[in-house]
Amino acid sequence: MPISTLMLVGCGSDGRPVVVGPGAGVVEVRVPEGASISRVGHLLEEKKIIRSAGYFKKVATGTILPGIYAFSPSDTPEAIYQKLNRGEVSSTRVTIPEGFTIKKIAARLKEKGVLADESEFLQLTEGLEGKLFPDTYAFAKNVTAKEIVSQLGGQFQKQTKALTLTREALIVASLIEREAETDEDRPKIAGVIYNRLKKNMRLQIDATVQYALPEHKARLLFADLKINSPYNTYLHAGLPPGPICSPGLPSLKAALAPETSDYLFYVQGEAKGHVFAKTFAEHRANIARVRRSARP
pLDDT for 126-169, tens place per residue? Predict the structure, then answer.
């Protein structure tokens, strides 16, 4: 909604002051920390949001909270006070998709104008990869990086409260999130990961290499698979040392309830689903078939 200056102040049928202005316009006002009701009343009067600071002082019978607020032309002094009393600050909605890394989350928050500087957020979230829950959030315009981390981390705790989530399961869930494209495939891919771990086979998951690289690549080269990183599952057996993204609930649940099978390999098929194989020979045949079907 666009921000504009209100042009006219009038009174309602009950004689109480109301604001009249452009129908789609709103005015944003910053209420300072520790500001008195009298000071806020004068601030609102100066901004021509209310007509009388004295009248506002009469209806504002309790406390008011600091922050940036948006007031519409139809808001009465009573409604304005209720917003200030409840702390209904102006907010920005931001969606954090499943599979985002902390760096991507920071970039999305900055893009949406919620973060002015990503550095503090990145410092506060060190060691929290995988524990910032992907969801849609409403952030106040004056929200701090610490408060953002608290919201995302709190949502993770809330969503995973009913799950017996180990660190191993969280890491596996992050791998599933980056590998699977359908909910049907998630338990199957989880089963493959656990099967390979039991046999001490290298996972050889491209997404772990992408996580180790300075920048994401549209296509990995053979040279990229040799990057010296504990996250490179082409070089190192076992799980990477930590999660590689923020997994959603379907991936978390798949990591805790993998599908039992003898599959050790998978390759993305023609559509979003994957084709699974028990032996390397079957896997090579599946790759060849997928490549043939992809030819024009």
Answer: 999 999 999 999 888 778 999 999 999 999 999 999 999 999 99
pTM recorded for the entire structure = 0.77
CATH of segment(s) 91-159? 3.30.1490.480
- How many degrees, rounded to 5, is the angle at CA 212 between CA 206 and CA 214? 120
SS3 78: helix
User: What burial letters (b/e) apply to 56-88, b meaning 16+ CB within 10 Å?
Assistant: bbebbeeebebbebbbbbebbbeebbebbeeee
Residue pLDDT, tens place only, 31-63 = 888 899 999 999 999 888 898 999 999 999 999
The one-letter amino acid at 263: Y
Q: Reduced to 3 states, what is the DSSP secondary structure of residue 52?
A: coil
Q: Are 231 and 211 in contact (CB under 8 A)?
A: yes
> Which CATH architecture describes the domain 8-86?
2-Layer Sandwich (3.30)
CATH 3.30.1490.480 in the chain: give the residue spans: 8-86, 91-159
